[in-house]
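Record type: monomer structure entry
Structure origin: computed from sequence
Chain ID: A
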Amino acid sequence: MSPTKRRCRPGFQSSRVHRAVKGMLLLSALTVSAAPYAETDADTLSVKHKYHIASGSLSHVLSQFATASGLLFVAEARLTEGKASAGLDGEYTVEEGFRKLLAGSGLTHAIASDKTVTLKIAQPQPQSGTTAMPAVTVVGKAVYDSTDPYNEDYRLSNASTATKTDTPLMETPTSIQVVPRAVLDDQQAIRLDEATKNVSGVQAPRQLGVLFDNFMIRGFTTPSFNVYRDGLRLGQQSFETSSLEQIEIFKGPPSTLFGRSAPGGLVNMVTKKPLFTPYYSISQQFGSYDLYRTTLDATGALDDDKTLAYRMNFSYMDANSFRDFVGRDRVFVAPQLTWKPSDAFEINAGYEYKKDNITGDRGIPAVGDRPANVPISRFIGEPNFSLQAAESHLAHLDWTYRFNDDWKLQQRFVANILDTFNQNIVPRSLQVDNRTVNRGLFSGLTQRATYAQDFNLNGKFKTLGIGHNVLLGLDYYRFDESREATILGPTAPFMTTIDIYNPVYGSLQVPGNLAKNNFVAQNQEWYGLYFQDQIDLTDDLHFLFSGRHDWATTRSGVSSTAAPTLNEATAEKFSPRLGLTYQPVKWLSFFANWTEALGATNGRSSTGQPLPSELAEQFEGGVKTEFFDGRLIASLAAYELTKNNVLTDDTSTVDPFDQIAIGQSRSHGLEFDFSGELTEKWKVIGSYAYTDVRILKDSGQFGSAPLAGNRLPNAPEHSASLWTSYDLTDGFKIGTGAYIAGKRQANTANNWQLPGYVRWDAMAAYQWHIGKSRMTAQVNVNNILDKRYYAYADEFGHPRFDAMPGEPITVLGSLKLEY
């Protein structure tokens, strides 16, 4: 680490360099410094070496060439943006290699006597009376554009989720972690939770098997209110990973910028955008339990002027499961367009269609204080009857107008229509013999519609030598839900049982013409105004102040005979946030923050009354540091988060959607995260979390069983993860990782638990070139030791059931062609 060397991050150069680049207009530069990596002398530069570098974006190809030549490559992003290279195949000197790679790019290069290679835009000689400005030399580590499909970085230096501005993580006074595309690819993450497992304090108690993704952050969960797509909230569903560029996890109450979010934090899915550089890939995955998944990614310019670009993502999956009778298939299509008529204006529009067919799966029931000792494949539903289907239509539009380099306007909009049909035989109670489960029936159609938009003005300026990065914004969110369902049993006219140790299927007789007896309607609507100022008090001291005012209305109702009468509840609150970051040296920063938040009104009582809003307050402090000249970033955070009106399921009713507020809970803990490179070939991402989350006050609605002092479910006191990959040769990569979780309570009553576990995974991949294309063959083996473990206990429904086993040893192979 060197406190005297300033690194240049994508889109975040020092003001001195920025002014120089702006003043040069057509004259920009790249610098490749050989000194840190090799004893590069004149003789070495004249020696020919063999290269096999596939075509791709110019920045990526140059990075590969510089790395293979023992050089350090740093690029000013605007110089290579939109340019492509045919690659390099054969024996070349450094001089010859640069000349060939830069052919037709409008760039030229020069090798100086001080062992520095400088690249700049080819310029005609200046006219008489004018002076050519010198090339700018940028010193630092190699950085890739995060949107580059060939980017293999585990570490990204900037993220926008915590501040809605492109802010370096080292200057962000909150806990935010980024899981880049490279990690998703190395781990072959098909589900969203397979990516978030790399981040401290995040658990994923998926609901109804794999129908809904849900995330517990810092011990708190709020179904459907902590998953965002490009900064806008989406309704509850299962999400697709093939169209994601990266995943950003913000920890702590994000309400000052995002409204009524879950106080524990949020998961923001950053999607792939159209590129003006052509890129195409097709991948075929195949694995255990008859899993087959095909993905397609295609992007490029549609016109010669490169003002219009497209992107098409496609995914199809057909899979069975280690669970008896359980399967899933999915179709996902996502076309989108980008129009950029000038550097000042850009508009993006797209559509996503997703359809899932899933077997309803309620896991394994508890016997005593542990999941029943039955095979992890045991299914307690009914084959050919437990069916779930979800169809989603999503449209999105966003535009940005840049007045200049410092000020811009941005608006984003998303509309999501989601219809979900559920037909399940569900567990209701366990008989005194501890083996016979009384089952009921749930069958119905739920229709959901989500509309979200925000409008932001962002600008930078100085007053009295103090820098400001100001954000002013407003947003609107609306969520509508209606359901007509039949809920029966386990009493007449519908009674069915199953022996969990000796199940017999196929004898179920379902009454014909089932009458609807459960009608639910819900509407949520709120407006928010917010502002934020990121103040550079000095070069080392950064202060953040943000505030938000919310106006929210929730209407809900339930009826057994017809469309319900809606009950209304309103909420209004100002939510502040203060943050401070101190960087005594560029590779070290200390941060602290305090925030209050208006959480979500995310549930209803058994009588249809909207439940009171969650309220939260957090104190947090920590340290962030960079190692190896910024190639590895690490953060350590301590926090205390208090949440009022915490919700849990009301087990006194047969409706699995009924909830109650249990009073006040508190989470405090310690979290450690790191990601990046130990060497150019050795990448790593890992985490550790200590989480103590407990109920402080009980609402008293559980009668003689007080909950105060109990732990909240699914949150292990200790958890950790470690994943690492190593490039053995230019084409051969191996990787391995372990995921650890301690014992967890399975419900708020704390009368049964899920045992702790350790899971070990590994991968190997080999890349080779076919002409100008790149082929990758990869195999991942998860749970190598075939350990029996339980990933979570579903809080949704009756929480002495639904312990979901983790997958046994599974193998996932793939072939991927890129060109």
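Annotation 1: The helical segments are 15-24, 42-46, 58-68, 77-80, 94-101, 181-187, 193-196, 255-258.
Annotation 2: The mean pLDDT is 84.
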